[in-house]
Amino acid sequence: MLFLPWSNEEEDLIHIIHEETFELYKDLIRQKRSEYVHREANEFEKAFEEHTERGNDDDIDDKNIEYDQDKNEFLIYETGNNEGDIFVEMGINIRTEKVEHFNVPKMIPDADYQRLIRSLNNNQRKYTLNVMNLIKDSDKQFFHFINGGAGVGKSTLIKAVYQSVLRFYNSLPGSNPETIRTAICAPTGKAAALIDGMTLHSFLSLPVNQCKHKLVKLDSGISNRIGVKLKDLQLLIIDEISMVGFTMFQQVDARLQQIMKSREPFGGVSVIVSGDFNQLRPVDDKYIFQFSNSYNALVDNPLSSLFELFELTEIMRQKDDKIFAIALSNIAKGMMTL
């Protein structure tokens, strides 16, 4: 009835016999439908009629059917070893070989990049230049934590850094755009999609179930294949760091050391993390700056101690409404604005 004019919903659409109404106005409906649907007007009706005819041909009187008893009807088929597998329970699959897939970094158009850089405030611009200077000094590994409340432009800043680093590497003589020298990741699929990146689990083949167990090393073949793809990796950016737990952060470090074949923290790869610890916390784990147990506190320094803090304070999302922006920030801190 979508293509039939009406004036009273109760009388013209609800309290009617739809089949009779369609038959009465079908020519008008088909005419109107053809104006808006760029296919044959009665295509659906034809398909429905053909389906009905096939159904009629397939109708068979059950009385004429002869049922043949399959001698193997009650045969119990072997489904393989059903015993519990501790590796599967730990989120480790040692029976199937995983196909690794990496998103090749993509540069946005120049006009969009220039617009992005112009949108940065003074602190964001200074930080971007600072990172670019560190990147150009390729021998120096660095660890940064970009902190700030909601709306201060953390995601915009890491996008600007990511695109600037991509442009620098792709401008080098003999560079290959398919080479992965920088990567941007997040702990969840939704967060990764928002930054056009990958999840940490996909990028580093981490087990989905952390299980609080020590990370089992990758098979040498898989490790070598990933190593070939990531051998030139210089910078890893992790967004929404508040959702990355202590265990996962340790796994990221261990996996990069294995892949890059280096005992340096994070395999010698520079790392930028971004997030707000007033937002979502890790699931069934502690924050990255908290020890998972008292024993770790005695023998280890947390990886978070390596990171230098860069704090964003200027609210960009609601920059034209300062009072509202302050109110939102105070709510996140558990304070009420008077």
From TrEMBL:
Keywords annotated in UniProt: ATP-binding, DNA damage, DNA recombination, DNA repair, Helicase, Hydrolase, Nucleotide-binding
Residue ranges constituting the DNA helicase Pif1-like DEAD-box helicase domain according to the UniProt record: 120-323
Any single biological process term in GO: telomere maintenance
Sample GO molecular function, one term: 5'-3' DNA helicase activity
InterPro entries: DNA_helicase_pif1-like_DEAD (IPR010285), P-loop_NTPase (IPR027417), PIF1_helicase (IPR051055)
Cofactor(s) demanded: Mg(2+)
EC number: 5.6.2.3
Any single Pfam family the record assigns to this protein: PIF1
Reaction it catalyzes: ATP + H2O = ADP + phosphate + H(+)
Enzyme kind, highest EC tier: isomerase
Superkingdom: Eukaryota
Gene3D superfamilies tied to this protein: P-loop containing nucleotide triphosphate hydrolases
Family: Belongs to the helicase family.
Protein name as catalogued: ATP-dependent DNA helicase
